[in-house]
Specification:
single chain, two-stranded antiparallel sheet, elongated
Length: about 260
């Protein structure tokens, strides 16, 4: 690396320089200040606080349905039959009867119960306290001092030096803050709610006019189901980074 070196002749010259020498002499007095001091105390009062909890509770409802049974009904109609002998025929009225099936339906009510969660709240007494700050005045002594200068003139013999400048070329690192995009993958959970059909085997009682029988049946409900999957999002932000480069420069200093 090329450098430039310079050298000057240094002459030492003595000269008389007057100098004022001062000494600070403190002068003090006592003063009294009135200050306010913060005193903290507790101030409490009784309040009613509402406390809630989720408790299970049975919830029932009546569900109406139609229950049918088949019976046989005797139905008779008046018809004309011919009755004949060796000489003549005559019309004879008679009754013709048939057994006809008949469906009989009645409305029955079933009691369906489910466990649900309800919010149960009650009021309980509690103490609520706050810090109250009171301002109290008090007398505080304070010493106030003032420096009073006392000066005199003295003469010093000094040697004055003539300086020279020495220079050289150096490599200097210059840095600057530049924006740069910084990205990272952020994982999160993405959920959706679907409905699942849940069925349970139950026994229902079916009755007609004479007797009742227990019949197995299926009771189904739609139950909500939460489905979650992990997804990855790409998040990018602009950040400031330090970018440095080396440039040649002249470095100078005064040498005595």
């Amino acid at each position: 690396v090329p450098t430039m070196q310079c050298k000057d002749v240094v002459d030492q010259v003595e000269k008389q320089v007057p100098r004022e020498v001062c000494v600070d002499v403190p002068q003090c007095r006592t003063e009294v200040d009135t200050v306010k001091e913060a005193v903290t105390r507790k101030e409490c009062k009784q309040v009613n606080e509402k406390v809630c909890a989720t408790v299970p509770q049975e919830e029932c409802k009546d569900v109406s349905r139609s229950q049918c049974s088949t019976s046989v009904e005797r139905v008779c109609n008046a018809v004309i039959e011919k009755s004949c002998n060796e000489v003549t025929c005559v019309d004879v009225p008679t009754m013709q009867c048939n057994d006809v099936p008949k469906e009989n339906c009645v409305d029955v009510v079933d009691r369906q119960c489910n466990m649900v969660h309800v919010n149960n709240c009650k009021t309980v007494p509690s103490m609520q306290c706050n810090d109250v700050v009171d301002q109290v005045e008090k007398q505080v002594p304070r010493e106030v001092c003032v420096d009073v200068p006392q000066c005199r003139t003295e003469v010093d013999t000094v040697t004055e030096a003539i300086t020279r400048r020495e220079c050289k070329q150096v490599d200097e690192q210059v840095c600057a803050t530049v924006p740069q995009e910084e990205c990272k993958d952020v994982s999160r959970s993405q959920c959706s709610t679907s409905t699942e059909r849940v069925c349970n085997a139950v026994t229902k009682k079916i009755c007609n006019e004479e007797t009742c029988v227990d019949v197995p049946a299926m009771q189904c409900n739609d139950v909500p189901k939460e489905n979650c999957v992990d997804v990855v999002d790409r998040q990018c932000n602009m950040v400031l980074v330090n970018n440095c480069k080396t440039v040649p420069t002249m470095q100078c200093k005064d040498v005595v």
